[in-house]
Amino acid sequence: MYEILKKEILAPNIYLMDIHAPRVAKSCYPGQFVIVKMDEKGERIPLTICDYNSEAGTVTIVFQALGNSTKRMAEYETGEGFRDFTGPLGCKSELVDEPIEELQKKNILFVAGGVGTAPVYPQVKYMKNLGIDVDCIIGARNKELIILEEEMKKVAENVYVATDDGSYGFKGNVNDCIKDLVNNQRKHYDLVIAIGPIIMMKFVCILTKELGIHTIVSMNPIMVDGTGMCGACRLTVGGQVKFACVDGPEFDGHLVDFDESMKRQQMYKTVEGRAILKEKEGATHKGGGCGCSDD
Ligand code: NAD
Ligand code: FES
Questions:
Q1: From the CA of 130, how far away is ligand 2's center (Å)?
Q2: Domains and CATH numbers, the chain
Q3: Apex CA 226: angle with CA 108 and CA 241, to 5°?
Q4: More confident residue, 293 or 43
């Protein structure tokens, strides 16, 4: 059992948990994720890693209680635990492999949307530990939904908070905030890392393409096995078929086909949709485990 050592409510329906998982904590890198299974019959839930402490053997997860499984997960209390806690999965952020001298030359802006602030945090913390100052925008629909602001302020050089309704910080979405920084405050960025809802990442990429800023996004499509076998997390990047769980989750945002990804997310939710995808995607769809086929 992977024990819950701490549980916190960060915002309505958004929960933080520290899980005792020493082996996972020892090998985590920013950008990776875990798959949690609550009990024998439980669904496999992919979750982004918000923080990890190899000495304490803990991994911090943040999740939104939206579906049946995450709502059930939110009912678990400190002292209880999960049956499986598999990870770290996926590739580490490309920043981890970049030489420090190269990173030092860059002005980096992180763009965190809603719950996507959780996977941004370990990356910003990693940069802070390397002695590299970065800027970070945290966007949410309103003040109540802003998470991890104080934590982010401890690791980023500048934190800009933006709310769609103007209830806190800059009034507008994250793109309005990027435009304000670049056009009005004359900030210059060489790299943007945007993590949040897919629609946000799509529009951030349209803007940064216009501005000529290389942009990395973290894709979190529906995942089933998390090991590249089932095909659930398929997406197209630069005209090539990729699987977010093994090839990502981070990709060059200017190459991601966001519209296809959003459409696929919807279709994957129904039996009919999965059958159409299987037909359309042919041999590259992959079978077994995703419920699309009897193979
Ligand atoms: P949200 O819907 O409240 O959006 C957060 C912010 O995104 C908004 O405040 C706004 O600033 C920005 N945004 C939204 N639409 C935009 C647009 N069209 N143009 C520019 N900016 C826009 O966020 P939420 O409710 O926290 O999001 C939940 C979603 O985030 C879920 O679908 C979840 O799957 C996804 N998510 C993604 C990741 C990831 O790794 N990419 C991680 C966690 C959650
Ligand atoms: Fe990626 Fe199954 S979740 S292939």
A1: 32
A2: 2-89 (2.40.30.10), 98-218 (3.40.50.80)
A3: 70
A4: 43
Atom of ligand 1 nearest to the CA of 33: 40
Per-residue model confidence as pLDDT tens digits over 108-137? 999 999 999 999 999 999 999 999 999 999
pLDDT at residue 284, as a whole number? 64
Ligand 2: which residues within 6 Å by Cβ? 223-226, 228-233, 243, 245
**Are the C-beta atoms of residues 250 and 218 closer than 8 Å to each other?**
yes
* CA 205/CA 198 separation, integer angstroms: 11
What's the pLDDT tens digit per position in 149-191?
999 999 999 999 999 999 999 999 999 999 999 999 999 999 9
Q: Ligand 2 test: best mutation among 89, 219, 230, 284, most atoms within 8 Å of CB?
A: 230
CA of 100 to the centre of ligand 2 (A): 32
Q: What is the pTM of this model?
A: 0.92
